[in-house]
UniProtKB/TrEMBL annotation:
It comes from Caenorhabditis tropicalis. Keywords: Cell membrane, Ion channel, Ion transport, Membrane, Signal, Transmembrane, Transmembrane helix, Transport. It comes from the Eukaryota. One of its GO terms (cellular component) is plasma membrane. The chain crosses the membrane at residues 263-285, 297-314, 326-349, 418-437. Belongs to the ligand-gated ion channel (TC 1.A.9) family. This is Neur_chan_LBD domain-containing protein. GO terms for molecular function: extracellular ligand-gated monoatomic ion channel activity; transmembrane signaling receptor activity.
Length: 456
């Protein structure tokens, strides 16, 4: 009986010993494993007795007393920043902002995360974004953004990599809406600027020094060609500024994006129809004095079309207290159409008076052709008034009255003939002055921004 109990105890002891050895092997396999499962290449030779990634993370964060609230270096941390612009989705003149998707790259050195002494199986550790919550970060953000969030489809778009020397590389894919300093005086020939400011929210430059990536020739680059319906991205300018705050000096990374408006759409939708409307209003000069109803309808419709077109353009623009280039164009164009209606009113008035005079004095022409006719039968003869006007020509007021009197004596047909030449000539002069002035203003603004004029 005693021998049987001894055998049972020995058997149980052997089973427990076997289980203990098995657990020890499993635990040790997390730290020291063969690299049979890893691909073997010439660049990365087969490693044996290396430490796996979960064990390295566990040792770094749990086994060394890592504190994420402690700054990695007492002398300050250098954070290298780089932006990759993925897309610019919109620029809104009403709200003065723009929206874009951007990759934010940050790199800094954290000596507490150094693991090259652990014989890692992988040269670099690519870990989940959940690990980032357990690490020290510079807590950087866009301080002037209206809205910013990290994409989370289908999961949070954060990439985290740790290098053997303790360098941390974090990449965020962010949707951000930033402000634009829109100035519409030259609209639609305008050039606009939008700004973003990136800095550490919690640490001044004695603790965190924000820098653009010195190894990259373009710290702010565009991954895909930016295609916007209204604007073209012509310049990206990154700068660094030290800004004073009550708690010290902060390093700010500024990004200025310069956009040039594509004015072809506005030329097709605003300028070209305006040209056609004005040209149509000039047709009334050739219809003669007998087609007054048709001329009136043509002029009124042209004016209404111009007003409707102007309102349609202004509906998509913000209410500003200054005059835009498109305002000058539309107002002057409406003035030309209004003057054509005014000319029509003068012609109609004179035509009506002439017809009334003919009814009152049907033999006027016959009497006027007779040399001995008295001047006062129907009206004063012009020859009788000329000496008086010549004697009083030295007075400027009377001279101006004489010019007006001469114009008023024009026949309706002559007024139409002069208007058919004068209106197009004045409109051509206005076009030369308008386009020369605003295009030179655009070149001056481009020179102030140090833009390449060949791209404008």
């Amino acid at each position: 009986m005693q021998k049987r109990n001894t055998s049972s105890r020995l058997f149980i002891f052997l089973i427990l010993l076997f289980q203990f050895i098995r657990c020890a092997v499993i635990i040790d396999s997390d730290y020291n494993v063969s690299s049979d499962d890893d691909p073997v290449t010439e660049a990365s030779p087969r490693k044996r007795n290396c430490t796996r990634q979960p064990a390295i993370i566990d040792k770094l964060l749990n086994g060394t007393g890592y504190n994420k609230f402690r700054i990695p270096n007492d002398d300050g941390v250098h954070v290298q920043v780089e932006f990759w612009v993925q897309a610019i989705t919109s620029i809104n003149e009403i709200t003065n902002d723009f929206e874009m998707d951007i990759y934010i790259n940050e790199m800094w050195l954290d000596p507490a995360l150094k693991f090259d002494h652990l014989n890692p199986c992988k040269q670099n550790l690519s870990v989940s974004h959940q690990v980032l919550e357990r690490l020290w970060t510079p807590n950087s953000c866009f301080i002037n953004s209206k809205f910013a969030e990290i994409h989370d489809s289908p999961f949070k778009n954060v990439f985290l990599m740790i290098y053997p020397n303790g360098t941390v590389w974090v990449n965020y894919r962010v949707n951000v809406k930033g402000p634009c300093d829109l100035s519409l005086e030259l609209f639609p020939l305008d050039i606009q600027e939008c700004h973003l400011i990136y800095e550490s929210f919690n640490y001044n430059n004695q603790e965190v020094r924000m820098r653009w990536n010195e190894k990259s020739p373009e710290p702010v680059s565009v991954t895909n060609k930016i295609r916007l319906p209204d604007f073209e991205l012509i310049k990206i300018e990154p700068t660094r500024v030290s800004a004073p705050y009550p708690a010290g000096m902060w390093d700010e990374l500024h990004v200025k994006l310069v956009f040039e408006r594509r004015y072809i759409w506005y030329f097709m939708q605003a300028y070209l129809p305006t040209y056609l409307t004005i040209f149509i209003s000039w047709i009334s000069f050739s219809l003669g004095t007998k087609a007054m109803p048709a001329r009136t309808m043509l002029g009124v419709n042209a004016l209404l079309a111009m007003i409707f077109q102007f309102g349609n353009i202004m509906r998509n623009l913000p209410r500003v207290s200054y005059v835009k280039a498109i305002d000058v164009w539309m107002l002057v164009s409406m003035t030309f159409i209004f003057l054509s209606l005014l000319e029509l009113a003068i012609v109609g008035y004179k035509t009506k008076n002439e017809e009334g005079a003919k009814k009152k004095c049907p033999h006027k022409k016959l009497i006027d052709n007779f040399e001995a006719s008295p001047a006062g039968l129907c009206r004063y003869e012009k020859r009788f008034m000329l000496p008086v006007e010549r004697r009083s020509a030295r007075w400027g007021g009377i001279m101006r009255f004489q010019i007006f009197q001469d114009f008023w004596n024009w026949s309706p047909e002559k007024i139409d003939r002069v208007s058919a030449i004068l209106f197009p000539a004045c409109f051509a002069i206005f076009n030369i002055v308008y386009w020369s002035y605003y295009y030179n203003k655009k070149l001056e603004k481009a020179a102030a921004m140090k833009l390449n004029e060949d791209r404008l």
